[in-house]
Design a protein that fits this description.
alpha/beta; globular; 4 strands
């Protein structure tokens, strides 16, 4: 875990400032606010780095969001401007367009979305929403990626959904390290220790993954793990999801540098 969380917090704030100095001196940071610790902490760091007037929180319920009050509490506490975009109608329209498309059943053998498509389509709509909001702001925007290093390690994110973004403050911090930073920020502390959930599947992250973040964090940082089966599962997830963090492979013709 972090030896000096305060120093890391200050370095994070400075890193965000330096990113914007180079990539958008007048831009705002757009942060999708879920009501969980990661988006809350990223929004708070951006406020510290840029000022409240340059951080825009976007809440994106899919019709009904059980913890929407937590998300509202975040933007109220931070005093940042916010927008609430309900993606429910867009999700239903896109789902209907896909399953009723000419040839869909013949090609897929299905009459409805697969469970994976049903779970991953909302975060992709949310990312499109964040960029849509950002491109309507007077001075433009950069979209924050709010994934942490533990999620990234096992690919617990949606490619081109929450795995996307322009800058990623927490990508190299594991869950407990993120919490260490969160405890130093002026945010509702109950959100720092809130049980992590993707808000999509109805399960906690740890239930869905089949192991705890404490076990994963220890393995990432030290290489130590007690259960061989869990190690094999983590290694497998890391291997098959590595593509989510890599640039898209591109063919290079002979003679082209």
């Amino acid at each position: 875990m972090l030896v000096n969380p305060e120093q890391t917090k200050e370095a994070l704030i400075q890193w965000i400032q330096q990113y914007f100095e180079v990539n958008g001196p007048k831009c705002s940071a757009v942060v999708g606010i879920s009501g969980g610790k990661d988006s809350t902490i990223v929004a708070a760091l951006c406020k510290e780095a840029l000022g409240a007037d340059r951080v825009v929180g976007v809440l994106m319920p899919n019709d009904i969001q059980s913890d929407i009050d937590d998300a509202k509490a975040v933007v109220a506490h931070l005093g940042i401007p916010h927008i609430i975009v309900n993606i429910g109608s867009a999700y239903r329209a896109l789902t209907s367009a896909i399953v009723n498309a000419e040839g869909f059943t013949a090609v897929t053998g299905r009459r409805d979305l697969s469970s994976d498509a049903a779970i991953n389509t909302p975060p992709r709509l949310r990312m499109a929403t964040l960029y849509g909001v950002g491109q309507n702001l007077p001075n433009g925007a950069r979209v924050a990626n709010t994934c942490n290093g533990s999620e990234d390690y096992v690919g617990y994110s949606t490619k081109f959904g929450d795995a996307a973004g322009d800058f990623s403050p927490l990508a190299n911090l594991v869950v407990e390290e993120v919490r260490q930073i969160g405890r130093l920020l002026d945010i509702p502390q109950y959100l720092v220790d809130k049980t992590p959930s993707d808000g999509l599947s109805g399960q906690s992250d740890e239930t869905k993954l089949g192991f705890t973040y404490a076990v994963l964090d220890r393995y990432i940082r030290t290489g130590e793990i007690d259960d061989k089966t869990t190690k094999q599962k983590i290694d497998h997830l890391q291997r098959i999801n590595r593509h989510k963090l890599e640039l898209m492979p591109a063919f290079i013709p002979a003679g082209v540098k």
